[in-house]
Amino acid sequence: MQIKVEEKTKIIQIFIGLTVMLCVIQLSASTDLLPISGNVLRAMHLLAGFSCAAMSFAIFTQGWILFTDKLSRQRLYSAVLFSILGILDIFHIAAFSSFNFFGFEPNLNLSIWFLMLSHGLGAIGMLFIFSFGDRQVSGRHKLGVFAGTVLFSLGGIILLYIYQGQLPSLLRVPGFGIGEQIAMIGIPFLYGLAIFAILYRHRKERSSAALTVITALMFMMMGHYLLTVVDPLGTGLAHAAGEWFMGLSYYFVLSGVYKLTIEEPYRGQLLIETQMKHMAYHDDLTGLPNLRRMKECLGECLNSLSPSTGQIGVVVININRFKAINDSLGYSAGDKLLTEVGERLTALCLPTETVFRMGEDEFAVVMPGFSNIEAAESRAKQLLASVDPAVLIDKTEYHISLSMGLSVYPEDGVTVDEMIQYADMAVHSAKELGLDFMRYTPAMKIRTQSRVELENDMRKGLDRGEFFLEFQPQVSLDSERTVGMEALVRWNHPKRGLLPPGEFIPLAEESGLIVPLGEWVLKTACQYNKQWQLEGYEPICISVNLSMRQFRQYNLADRVDAILKEVGLEARYLELEITETMTFDIDTAFEQLHSLKRLGVHISIDDFGTGYSSLYYLKSLPIDRLKIDRSFVKEVMLDGNDAAIVSTITTMARHLKLKVTAEGVESKEQLEFLKLQNCHEGQGYLFSKPVPAGIFESQFLTRLVS
């Protein structure tokens, strides 16, 4: 719409110029209607000529001096061109007004030469400058052009000075009609060619600057026509009007070059800076303000509010199981979900509330203006309950759930970072406990700090040798002899003492430390087993648990093989325990298990019965043993369902030719029941709790007879 307005404006200006030109021509033809004295005409000539010179040097100054650090080709060459035109215009007006200027003899013929040179160079220069694309030029290039311009100008003036007496008359001289033809046709043709070139280069979008330059060229054509065709001898109003038309064209050039090389690039730079600022403070996907902007806005709210005058709530909202959605449906579906949730939160917020995207699957809302904590909690819960859980993605409706954490100023925190941090702690605590809403409490911070410290201590503990193994025997129910053992990791914390696995194993899984820890357990267990064999004890199999992260390692089989070769333990004396959940991705599980079986190790499924194993896939898995979970064995004498489950597992295993080990055997009654079910082995406190290596060696290992 703006370009259309500019086009209309320039068309009107050109139309007015044409109308004025026609009126001048008409008045010039009717000299009786416009009696103007020669002095007035001379004054008009002088004013117009010096206006052209002034405009020329203004263009030169604009291109040569201002904004030299961002000098462009068009601005530099426009400055050069109009510096030459300004000099020629001064010589022209001096010769026309009978001034002896720098030794030039003033006469009409010399004036016309200067005029023709000015118009010809102007037409050629405008065509050359604006027919090609613009680009930045260096300071070195600028100096080269400056030196060339000075030499060209001096050379041209010297030649004109030397041969001024021999210059032929260009107009109305018998035998020299070609000069008149060039003046009437050639120069306007160059102006028209320049206009066409500019229109072609800006055919997709005509900028204001390009339209201004076109207007300048049109006024140059009109001025040239008045000066060389209507009144070439300069005796009437048309010649003076032609000079003023040329002055107006110079003004348009000045304006156009300014817009094209300074104003429009500056506006473009401002637009880029605005876009960059928007990108710095807004999320690319949802368009919502980001965490950086949130910190600024929240800081402004806190600065304008004192603890005694009001309360501000900050809620962090998390999309539950977003990663599962993203992985199963694809990233584009995840992006649509994030955008939809952002739009819904924005629509549900009050005018005083602002939604932000913190990153990943988290959003935040700053809610000011509460009189008490209860009001903040009520508003937060209302917002959470108002979000429609149904989301349509690719023509399929999915139901999502959200978790929310709340922190309130000044009760929970008094700084921007504290408010955001505590709300984030609250939402993660809610997710861990399976709740949809929680407000921050100091206990969350203590627990989080404790987990961070524990994780840091765990990293150091691996290097310091704070971890050790205990061993629990696996006993044959028929012979009641030790036929195997399970290696269990323990942590002797330097400050907290002996920590149960339940305190550090989940944290190790979450942080990824379970991989180096699991590899240490595997290697250490193999070393113990090999050492006992070297000391003359009867070889038995040692069981080591694999974590989910370990099982997903692409080079797991290679790592196990490298450890076995390094320790020197035969693969048949190692059993690796996995859980049912590790077999959910059945293709990956098949590939991984077959890779391990090719090494010759045994594989068992631990805690069997608590997962969701498919019996169809179970018969195809390359496994050797099922370990019945302790939860079924514990109530086997009291609960008929547990007894039935244990009986079913043992019967199924027997038909699948798998061995069965019952975990958690604690009483004689349980032992007798398991014997009746043809269970092969048992493990539990009835036989022994997990014990250190020395005790296990002395109590459960049997020396070979020499």
N→C terminal distance: 103 Å
Strand order of the largest sheet: 8-9-11-12-13-14-15-16
Largest sheet: 8 strands, mixed, barrel
Shape: elongated
How many strand elements? 17
Number of helices: 24
Average pLDDT taken over every residue: 84
Report low-confidence residues grouped into runs of 5 or more. Answer: 171-177
Can you give a write-up of this model?
About 1% of the residues have low confidence. It is elongated, with a radius of gyration of 46 Å. With 706 residues, the protein is α/β, with parallel strands linked by helices. 59% of the residues lie in helices and 14% in strands. Strand 9 and strand 10 form a beta hairpin. The strands form 3 sheets. Strands 8-9-11-12-13-14-15-16 form an 8-stranded mixed β-barrel, surrounded by 5 helices. A 5-stranded mixed β-sheet has the order 2-3-1-6-7, with helices on both faces. A two-stranded antiparallel ribbon has the order 4-5. InterPro entries: Biofilm_reg_signaling, EAL_dom, EAL_sf, GGDEF_dom, MASE3, Nucleotide_cyclase, Rev_trsase/Diguanyl_cyclase. It holds the Pfam family EAL. Keywords: Membrane, Transmembrane, Transmembrane helix.
